[in-house]
Write a structure and sequence with these properties.
This protein has 674 residues and is mainly β. Among the domains are: 119 residues, Immunoglobulin-like, CATH 2.60.40.10; 167 residues, no CATH class; 82 residues, Immunoglobulin-like. The protein has three helices and 55 strands. Strands 1, 2, 36, 37, 38 and 39 form a six-stranded antiparallel beta sheet that branches. Strands 21, 22, 23, 24, 25 and 26 form a six-stranded antiparallel beta sheet that branches. Strands 41, 43, 44, 46, 47 and 48 form a six-stranded mixed beta sheet that branches. A hairpin with a 2-residue loop joins strand 33 and strand 34. The protein is elongated, with a radius of gyration of 34 Å. The relative contact order is 0.11.
């Protein structure tokens, strides 16, 4: 089986052959990165958070509804923006690691939109869903070459006072999608949530049409997109449709699988208290065996209220995980824990605590989040109620969660609201909200195969904690965190980017020699998911040239000498990865050659040539001495060579001494054989 690095290089070669290129790396960035490498040791490059300009700067920015990245690095961020009397949905598309200008999604709709969500797939497929005036809408784009379509009505509650809310969207790799949501009755004109995130957590505070301040029992519904049209499953997914479900922290969570199935989880009142259930759906048919994911007890502590489900599926959709928050009796007081259960078919495994907390004393967990890759590896993270810390556990490739551990490193007094995302090679991104620096900010760490990287602060201005925090990650471990920050000039939507560096170029020739001072170099392509890299060739501490291609002939004249050289791949962010070090030999002087014949000069007797070859330093080194004896015989030698002529006559002997740079010294002598 090939390694991930080998697969990256194969993909890079295919891209190079296809001529796939993105905008050039600015020359100043390329030269600066190459110089940094030229003066540094050839250590492996590391992934890093890269400078990312704000996606949107507007006083009307309300919040971020979601960030999604596909396996191929394409992605989208959806935001809510106040425009005039109402809130509207904008989406920004990620193309080759650059966020494009936001575009309006709900154009032509009156009133206010709210609760936007987004999901993507490789090739540029995008679906955005939202609610507007209590109805559920979606807009789709099949591929990067297609425009985003107009708003399409997915569901309108037949009850005049009914609303759709709390959408959860998942687009599968094959283009089919599932959209879970809650339906409920609402009191017309009832006040909704207030504050800058009113449109994300609920309805706008005012505006025409029914408020999303639902007062009736909620029902879980599911819509399916079959690549061309939406259809809503006829029956609710609730175990008991008469019971309240899907509101607040009981909102549904949906994940779509490549085989056309989906997994849906939600909170529903059962036995007088909210519980969490999970149900599979095979295209338009829900499983007849919904399972209760919340548990009767954990470690001998009786279970109670449960909510906040998060779900994931593997490539083999028979296997998945669910994480949730559940309260347990702890000496007569409720103690909230984050637990996970593995799903095999329709059966749930035993509960596993993923919060690193303990009964009897200490903190309690808040709503958890799960990231799961197709091979069953992932990460579960949650906040804590008192310390507002971030805790979590890594899920290894044996489907075993490691011990829960603290993720953040500083004191915090706001809800961390952690967000997680996963790549395909056991890499996970964990982001959270923090105010350790005196003001609200966004922090992040990346987990690679169970090892957490350093903590980074991503916001460059004061974070708006009500503006939402969402994470996405592609196959190769490039990631993004979306949030809102507030500057002195306005509100900004930020899609911070975590970029893997380009892979190291492969030298076609590790030793390069030149006799004219303008050496030529060739190499195999480097892979960078977000835009093809540029290349710089360095010799010693000097840059000989830059290119987007896979070869370069130096326009800079290089003096005679022996130099270490490297080819440096630089991505659009200035991240540089050098090749192994090669050897450059520049030699403009041919070797000195003297030839001394000896021996009997008669047919049948050997004629010997004594050779003396010298080359001044620095030298590219002697490559060979070639002797053409004049009778069709050729000999390669270094110090001495002998030859026997069969016939008498005069022979022109040509001796050529050449070095590795291609310089040659020629001596011709005539040998007469009696």
């Amino acid at each position: 089986m090939s390694s991930p690095i080998h697969r990256l290089h194969r993909l890079a070669r295919r891209r190079a052959r296809a001529g796939l290129r993105s905008e050039l790396v600015p020359r100043a960035t390329l030269v600066g990165a190459a110089l940094a490498v030229a003066f540094a040791s050839a250590v492996p490059a590391q992934a890093a958070w890269v400078p990312t300009p704000p996606i949107d700067t507007d006083a009307g920015v309300v919040g971020v509804g979601g960030v999604a990245l596909a396996s191929d690095g394409s992605g989208a961020l959806v935001e809510l923006k106040r425009d005039g009397a109402g809130d509207h949905v904008d989406v920004s598309i990620l193309v080759d690691g650059v966020w494009q200008a936001p575009q309006r999604v709900d154009g032509g709709q009156d009133g206010s939109s709210t609760q936007p969500v987004v999901s993507v797939r490789s090739g540029g497929g995008v679906i955005v869903a939202w609610t507007n005036e209590g109805a559920l809408y979606a807009a789709t784009r099949a591929a990067s070459a297609s425009p985003l379509g107009p708003p399409t009505l997915v569901y309108r509650n037949p009850n005049p006072n009914g609303v759709a809310l709390n959408p959860s969207l998942s687009l599968s790799v094959n283009g089919a999608a599932y959209l879970g949501f809650t339906t409920a009755a609402a009191t017309p004109g009832a006040p909704g949530p207030s504050g800058p995130l009113a449109g994300l957590l609920g309805p706008p505070a005012s505006g025409p049409g029914p408020s999303l301040s639902a007062t009736g029992a909620g029902t879980i519904r599911l819509a399916r997109f079959d690549r061309t049209a939406w259809s809503v499953l006829s029956a609710p997914l609730n175990v008991d449709p008469a019971q309240d479900a899907g509101r607040g922290a009981n909102r549904p969570a949906v994940v779509a699988a490549a085989d056309g199935t989906a997994l849906v989880a939600w909170g529903e009142v059962a036995g007088g208290a909210p519980a969490v259930f999970v149900r599979r759906v095979d295209r338009g048919t829900p499983s007849a065996f919904p399972q209760q994911a919340s548990v009767p007890a954990l470690a001998g502590h009786a279970g109670a209220t449960a909510d906040s489900p998060s779900v994931g599926l593997e490539f083999d959709a028979s296997f998945g995980w669910i994480v949730l928050r559940q309260e347990f009796d702890d000496g007569g007081s409720p103690h909230s824990r984050a637990i996970a259960r593995r799903l095999i078919g329709d059966e749930l495994g035993p509960p596993v605590a993923v919060d690193g907390l303990a009964f009897g004393a200490g903190d309690a967990a808040t709503a958890p989040a799960l990231a799961l890759d197709g091979r069953g590896r992932g990460f579960a993270a949650a906040g804590t109620q008192s310390a507002h810390a971030v805790v979590g556990a890594h899920l290894n490739d044996s489907s075993v969660f490691g011990p829960g551990t603290r993720i953040d490193s500083t004191a915090n007094s706001i809800d961390p609201a952690p967000a997680v995302a996963d790549g395909a090679f056991d890499t996970q991104l964990i982001g959270w909200e923090d105010n350790a620096g005196g003001g609200p900010s966004v922090h992040a760490r990346v987990d690679s195969r169970g090892v957490l990287g350093p903590e980074a602060v991503l916001s460059t201005a004061s974070l708006d904690p009500t503006g939402g925090l969402h994470a996405g990650m592609d196959k190769y471990g490039d990631g993004s965190l979306g949030f809102v920050q507030v500057t002195g000039t306005g509100r900004q939507v930020v899609g911070a980017l975590y970029a893997q560096p380009p892979t190291a170029p492969h030298l076609r020739r590790a030793v390069v020699a030149s006799r004219n001072g303008h050496p030529g170099f060739t190499w195999g392509p480097s892979f960078a998911e977000w835009g093809g890299p540029s290349y710089a060739v360095t010799a010693g501490a000097r840059i000989l040239g830059t290119t987007r291609g896979l070869s370069l002939t130096s326009r800079v004249r290089v003096l005679d000498g022996v130099y270490p050289f490297r080819v440096v791949a630089v991505d659009r962010y200035g991240q540089a990865t050098p090749s192994v070090t090669g050897r450059l030999l520049v030699d403009s002087v041919a070797p000195k050659l003297s030839v001394q014949p000896s021996g009997s000069r008669t047919a049948g007797s050997p004629v010997t040539l004594g050779l003396r070859v010298t080359d001044r330093a620095p030298s590219s080194g002697l490559r060979r001495v070639r002797i053409a004896w004049g009778d069709g015989t050729v000999t390669l030698a270094r110090r001495r060579a002998s030859h026997v002529y069969s016939h008498s006559g005069s022979y022109h002997v040509r001796v050529v001494a050449s070095d590795n740079a291609g310089n040659a010294r020629v001596r011709v002598l005539t040998v007469t054989i009696a």
